[in-house]
Each structure stands twice: as structure tokens, then as C-alpha cells.
Amino acid sequence: MAKRSRLSDDLQVISGIIDQVDHFTKQRFRALDLQVETKPDFTPVTDADRGAEKIIRNMLGKYRTRDAIFGEEEGESSGYSNRRWIIDPIDSTKNFVRGVPVWATLVGLEEDGEMVLGMVSAPALHRRWWAVKGLGAYTGRSWTTAQPLQVSRVNRIEDASLSYSSLQGWQERNQLRAFLRLAQAAWRTRAYGDFWSYMLVAEGAVDIATEPELELYDMAALVPILTEAGGQFTDLEGNPGPYGRCALATNGILHADALEVLHSVRDND
To answer: Which of 29, 97, 179, 208 has the most Cβ atoms closer than 10 angstroms to its Cβ?
Structure first.
């Protein structure tokens, strides 16, 4: 109970921090003076990404002084506890740059190597999702109006809705044929992409979401939300958690079948 109470306090703290971040990122979204650069990995970064991460780091440094922090833009800051905050200041920066409102700030809390808290805030969509291990997953703009999240009960891939981001990564993994086999077997496919795919799985609106190339900060916040909503989150080998640089998230019922299809054929077979 003490641990859950502490995590509830953590949730309150990060919620207040994200309120400030949302105010900042909304001001920078579609700003005429938005500064955009290209990182060494050829992905874009904006002054909004860097500013959002700075706000989170500064506030966590004030309220959670002993904890480590790992963020997309500034890397790892060591701590003195068994806890680490993992930050993606703006997930889907390409959407942010192009004026597409599907982007979000992602913050997860890892304790003893396990993701125990996650918050995803998409202010341009007026949406927020969060979860604490053992306390459920919710969505809403306030605590009083929050609604619990629950994955779907779809039990056949032929009846499932599948979301993905792109095809290129599957080709690089030598699994494009397998992914297309899964997509063709599914009832419906849409490229909602990035955090949005996984939140839709948590809501029960989508049944399977998968990506072949991801970083820890892309996934950390998603795991508690998916699992507390009753779903399953693994890498493409079936290992649970956000540590495998790829992801498969499902309602749990479909997980084994989806993994089987994704491993049913290789592009060079």
C-alpha cells in the first residue's frame, strides 16, 4: 500500500509538470518561428522538443531530486535511487513540424527495472492517458471526469483492427512479408502511428499495434497504460516491456497469434 501511495503522489507530481509542458508545446505548435534542426540520425528536433524536456527535467529535479532521468534530447542523468524517469518530450515530432495535431509528451517511471507509471498527453487532441501499476489506466482531462481504459475482447485476427507506422522498418528487419501477411489477415488496417496506435489499443478501439524500430523513450510510458488496461506489450520476440527496440501491443487475447504470424515467414525465405 505504501508503494501505491507513493506512486499516486508521483502521478500527481508528473501531472502538474505535464500541465506546464502542454502550455508550452501548444504555444510552439504551428509557431511561425519554430526552429527545426536535423539530428545525426536524420530525425527532426525542434526548440519545442528541447524546451519541453528542459521543463520536465527542471521540475523533476526540484520534486524528485534522487531519481535518475533519461530523455530523448539530453540523454541520461544519474540518480541516487532505484527509480528512473524516461521522457519523450514530443513523440511524433514529424507531425508536430508539419502541423498535424497527432503528437504527445510521454513520461514513464521505471522502478527496479519495471515500468510502474506512464502518462501520455496530447494537448492538440485535448486528450491525456495515464496509469499506475495496480491502480488501473484512465483517460480524461481531469481526475474527476476520468474514464477507465479497457482493451477489446476481439479474439480472432480476422476480426481485428491493426495499426502501424510505416513499412520501411519491416523491410529492414527482413519481416515485411510477415507483416503484410498479418495486415492482410486483419479485418482493418490503419497507420495511426506512434503513441496514438497504442492508446487506441488501450481504449479498445484498435486490437493490435506494432512497430519494428523504436527507442526506450518511445515506449516506456505506453507499457503501464497498455497493461493496466488489460493488454499485453512485448517486443517482437515476445519479451515483455519496452526494452527490445520494437513493439507488439495487443488486447492480450490476440498476442500469441500475432507473434506467430510475424514469425511465419522471412523476406529471404
So the answer is: 208
